[in-house]
Amino acid sequence: MESIIFKIINLVIEILKIVIVIRVVLSWVAPTTRNDFTEAVYSITEPMLKPFRMLLPLGYSRIDISPILAYFVLNLIRKLAIMLLF
Fold it and tell me: What is the value of pTM for the model shown?
């Protein structure tokens, strides 16, 4: 049972990490393009990235590190799930 729960958690985390990477690539390649795909990616990732932006506002910096922080937190959540389940 624990293995199934871990596999589900792991799959969800991997999907979220991939969507974050897609968002980063979209912001580099086509930052002003809006269509159904980009709206879906932004709507999935924005709730995860917004708390990090509130902690570390961009200010005069043009580099948004919130995707990097979210990526690390997702890895931390996975490790915590391993520790709690096994």
Answer: 0.86
